[in-house]
Amino acid sequence: MDVYGIIGNPVEHSLSPPLHQAAFDERGIDAKFVTFEADEDRIEEAFRGAEALGIDGLTVTLPFKHDAYDFVDPEESVERVGAVNTIDFTDDGPVGYNTDMTGTLRAFEHHDVGLDGADAVVVGAGGAARALAFGFEEAGADVSIVNRTESKAHDLAAEVPGASGHGLDALTDLMAGADVVANATSVGLESDESVAPADAWHDDCVAFDAVYKPLETRFLSDAAAAGAQTIDGAWMLLFQGVDAFEIWTGVDAPVDVMNEALRSHL
Ligand code: ATR
CA torsion sign, 61 to 62 to 64 to 65? Predict the structure, then answer.
C-alpha cells in the first residue's frame, strides 16, 4: 500500500484526507492518506523521516511551506514563488511543487475564465497572495497587488514581473478597470466582512475568494449582487489537490468525485 499525507501544524481539521482518499478509492489505487502534525522545531527531521520511511507524497501546509523549499528540488515555478505545498518523493529525491499556484489557474480554466491579458487585482500580500500573484502573472495577466500594509504590496510587486503595488485606498479605482479581483486576505474568514467596498463591484469582472469558510463570503455575495461571476475558495482547495494527485500518481484525477468529497466536508 502507498502512503501519502499532509504535514502541518495544526492539521487536525484538514480537508485533504477526504479529498485525496476519495480520489485513490475512485481510481482503485491502494493508498492511504494520513495527517502528520509535525513538531515545529523538528520539521527538517520530519521531512527526512518521511523520505526514509518511503512515504510517497506529501501535501505541505502552514507553517511549513517555506521550510519545505529547502528540502526539495524545486520545480521551475516553485523557484520563483519560494514556497512548496506538494512534495513528490521520486527515485531521484524529493521534488517540490506549488499546486496552490497551478491549481488556482486550473480553477479559473474550469470556470472558463481567461487570464491572458486580464487586469487582475490581488488583495493581500501574504502566502496566499504570493501564489495568486505569481500564478496570474504566469498566465499572462497584468497584476496589481493591494494591501493594508502598503509596503508589503510594493515588496511583493517587486518580485512579480510587471506587477504594481498599492495601498487599500487604491482598491476602488483599480476594481473599476479590473477583469479579476481576488481576495487573498483573511478578511471574511468566519466573519461577515469584505475587504472590498460593495459599491466598487461591476458585472464585467470575476471575483475569486481564497477564503472558504464560509463558502459564500461577503466579498463574493457583494460581487454576485453586482452581477459579477464568482469562484469560491473551495475551487482553489480542490484543484491544488487535483494537481497534487496527478503529480503523485500520473493518473487523471476524478475531479467531480473529489469536488463532492470536499464539499460534503465543508
Ligand atoms: P496567508 O499566508 O494565509 O496569506 P498572512 O500572511 O497572515 O496569511 O496574510 C494575511 C493578509 O491579510 C495580509 O495581506 C494582511 O494585511 P497586512 O499585511 O496589512 O497585515 C491581510 N489582512 C488581515 N486582516 C486584514 C484587515 N482587517 N484588513 C485588510 N487586510 C487584512
Answer: positive
